[in-house]
Amino acid sequence: MAETTAKSPSQEGYLEKLLELGQLMNSTLELKQVLDIAMEQVIKFVGAERGFILLVDVATGRVWGEAMHQIDRSALEAAFSGREGGDQAEISKTIVESVLTTRQPVISYNAMEDPRFASRQSVQFHNLRSVLCVPLLVRDKLLGVIYLDNRLKTGVFSEEHLHMLQAFSNQAATALENARLYENLRRSLEERLRLQDELHKQETRRLAMEEANRLKSDFIGFVAHELRNPLTTIRGYIQTILADTDHSLDEETKQEFYRAIEADADRLLDMINELLDVSRLEAGRPLTLAIREVDIRAILERLVNRYRYYKFYTDRHQLVLDVAEDVPRTIEADEDKLTMIFSNLISNALKYSPNGGEVRVAGRREGDMLVVRVSDQGVGMTREECARLFRPYERLEREEIRNIQGTGLGLYLVKHLVDLHKGTISVESAPGQGSTFTVRLPIQAQQVS
Fold first, then answer.
1. What is the model's pLDDT at position 449?
2. pTM higher than 0.85, yes or no?
3. Which domains are seen in the chain, by residue range?
4. Per-residue pLDDT, 217
C-alpha cells in the first residue's frame, strides 16, 4: 500500500520560497537554465517525485517540454504529439489535457482512486497517485502547464502547495512571454543591424549616416523592454494577493509584498524619467533643475532600502550605507535628479557584481562640498573602459557580463545631471577589483540652472 503524507509549507517558508522564485524568474531573459533551477526547487519544496513544464503553441499544435525532472523529454513530447514512444513518459494525458482544455488547476490526492481519473488505463498502469497540474496563463493566453506528481505516496500535495504552484505559474508564464517578446525584438534588431551594414557598403556616406541615426532612435525604443522586469514582479505579487481568498497570507507577509511593489514601482518611474531626460538631450533641449532644500540622508536611505528588492541583489551581497555625522541633513539640489544619479550608481554596482560582495554608499563632507562614493567588489574596468564610460550608448562587452542587460545611457545621463549641479563625478577601477564612483556636489547651490 502506498505511503500517505500530509505536509503543508509553513507561512514563512511559503513566502521565502515565493520571493526566491520571483527574483530567480526576473534575473534574466535567458530562461532555460532559470526554469530548470526553479522547477528543481519547487519539486523539492512540495515533495514531488517528478515534474515538467509542457509548452504548447495553440496555432500550430506544436508541444515541447522544458525543465524536465525524472521524465524523458522525447517521450513526453511523443505522448502529446501522437508519435511512437509516448508510453515511456509514464504520465496520464487525460490529466494534462483536462488542464489544457478547462484552464483550471487539478489536484488529486490519489489519482488511482480519484473518480475523475481512476478509470483511465494510463493512471492505473503507471501507478499515478499524488498529482498536481496548473495552467500557464498570461493575459488569457494559454502557454502550457506545470505538472508535478509522486507515484510512491498519496496525499503529498495540499491546497497550500496548489496556491504556491499557481503563484509560481503566474511568474513563469509572464517570464516566458517576456522572453518571447525579447527574442523577437532581438531578432528584429539583428536584422536591422544587418541591413545597416549592407547599406553602409552599398550607399553613400550620407545615406549610411541617416540610417545610423534612425537605428539610434530605434535603440532608444528598444530600452522599453527594461521596463518589463519591474512590471513582471509587480504583477506576480498582485496576483498572489488577489488569489489569497482564504486569507492565508498574514499582515506581515502582505506588507513585505507591498514594499516590494513600491520599490519596483519607484524603479519603473525612475526609468521612465531617465528615458524622457535622454530624449530631451537627444533633441537638443536643455534639462532644468528644480532647486530646493532636500534631505540627502533620506534619499540615500530610501535608495539603499529599495535596492534590497532589486533583481540583481542576492544573499551574497551586502548593501551598506555609511554617512558621516558631519554630513548636513539637507543640501540645495533637485531631489528627483539626485535620486536618478544615485539610483543609477547603486543599481550598476549591484548589476556588475554578479558574484556578490559589499556595495558601500558612503557620504562625507569636504569643505563646502558633499562627497558620495558608491563602491563595489565587482568585475571592475580597464583604464580604457573608464575613459569611455560616460559616453552615450557605451556598454562593457566583456564575456563575464555579456548577458547583463542595459541601455548604455544611465552614466551618460548621470554625468550630465552632476554637471548641471556644478558638481563632478569620477571613477576608480581595475579589472577584478571592483569600482568606486565619486560624486562631489555643492552643499549650497551657486547659480545652478
1. 44
2. no
3. 3-165 (3.30.450.40), 178-282 (1.10.287.130), 292-442 (3.30.565.10)
4. 59
